Description:
The chain is an all-alpha fold and about 60 residues long. It is built from two helices and no strands. Helix 1 runs antiparallel to helix 2.
Amino acid sequence: MSGRINSAKDLMVYKRAYELAMMIFEASKKFLAEEKHALTGQIRRSSRSVCLNLREAGSAP
């Protein structure tokens, strides 16, 4: 890794987690109608939490 890290978004782990979250979002569009509200929402929230936690950790004093 080269250069200065200004935020969590500069980390490779953040970039990969974001890519995976987008892949999960696209895959969840294909779920059955019965699963759209319960399971889909839970999976999408959990996939986004990785990036959110990294950003939160990066802003800690």
